[in-house]
Amino acid sequence: ESAAMWQNLPPSTDLLRLAYYYALRYNSRRRPMAKKQDDSLASLGRFSEPALHILIALADGPKHGYAMTQDIEVMTGSRPGPGTLYGAIARLEARQWIEALPAEERRRPYKLTSSGGRVLRVRRDALKTVTKIALSRLANA
Fold this sequence. Notes:
There is one protein chain. With about 140 residues, the chain is mostly helical. It is about 60% helix and about 5% strand. It contains six helices and three strands; from the N terminus they run H-H-H-E-H-H-E-E-H. It has helices at about 1-5, 15-30, 50-60, 65-75, 80-95, 115-140, and strands spanning about 65, 100, 110. The protein has a three-stranded antiparallel β-sheet. A hairpin with an 8-residue loop joins strand 2 and strand 3 (about 110). It is globular, with a radius of gyration of 26 Å.
């Protein structure tokens, strides 16, 4: 339809016709696709470790930010900064792996969702496998 319009142009518009051809050819093939949400911690890239720590902290029940920070410090020996903690919380909430509960005074507790529990179990199993391999290799070293 609209391509016919370009065929009747004088030869001086060849460059324009060529640009139109390439625009049609390449843009018609590249339709925006809905991004599939990856259901793994690896999809968080360099943010996966703080996210894992939060999922573990919430595995035994709801906690607010400060309680998570304390729990993570006991687990890892280091305390995440507020930017790291709340950035990871936002990413986990966006993926619906954790959910905010009604605020208690000034504190907002979070809980692990069923999909967050699934992600944590998958990660736990992967870590078990890696740990088993490391132990067997250390035994032979």
